[in-house]
Amino acid sequence: MSRCKVSVIIPIYNLGKYLPRCFESVISQSHDNMEIIMVDDGSTDNSRDVAEKLAASTDTAIVIHQENQGPAIARRTGVLEATGKYVVFLDSDDTLPQDAIEAMVTISERHSLDAFYGLYNRVFPSYTLPSTSRVHEGVIGGDEMTRNILNPSFVYYAGMCFSRRDKWDASMFSDNREIPGEDILTNLRLSLKCNRIGIFNRWVYNYHHMDNSLTTSGRYFKYKYWKNYYIEMREILENSVKLQQFIENVKVMEIDSMAFYVNDIDTSDDWYKQVLKYDVKKYPLKIKVLHALLHTPRLLRWCVKSNRWIKRAIKVGVPLLRVSPKRGN
Prior knowledge:
This protein is α/β, with parallel strands linked by helices. It contains twelve helices and nine strands. A hairpin with a 4-residue loop joins strand 5 (about 115-125) and strand 6 (about 130). It is globular.
């Protein structure tokens, strides 16, 4: 077994009741050279006390307390404290399979990787759904990874990433809290700093979902949040002199996000008008259809809602006539 030290970073905000389960999955890992950095992001429940009690049970864990600044800044705090060769992020309501870290260390060392991405399980109260294995696995370059991250069909959550500590600094995390999420932006920044990235069909993360989880319901976010998100994405690529190389990928993502996840499309705004002007002739059929529907937002929203509740019903085996199109939205 490799003795490389791994820093496990756990941001915490008001999830004290799940934290023991999360913590247990870390200390039960088959890889035993770790440090656990729990960052309490201004919790108002019992998370602070739970974290302190768990940290006191082992000499490999610490707790950092800070004012609430959001998950991106909590992860940044953890990274700046980390001393391991590798870092991995774990949300406080999720868990790691018992051999996850050992597998990621072994594969990363074998292939001299800057970053490793595996697969995940979606764990619901009554069933588990493993993510689909990727057709292609192996070592790819940074540009190929960037293209993958900018593909709506690929999934790269923070928890699926295991990477070298020396690839991280304070600039890797977004300071803007008025965005729908930071995972893709953070992974985008990482891809631009890496040369060797491993994509392997190993299940290395368990996402635990409640009935009203974001993944289950397909939560919408405010229009301005998504607009801010793509302004930041373009700035990241522009600063790396990569924007023109990946501009078509960004446009596809914008269409997909505006169609599926924007709560209140503002038809008078410049971003909406800009997206409608995109030339989509060479884009995939799905994106062409979404782009056409964006011209009639009310019809688009009805189609998206209907598609979601039908898919959800099929996944859980519920007869379609019993499913309300309003549920979960």
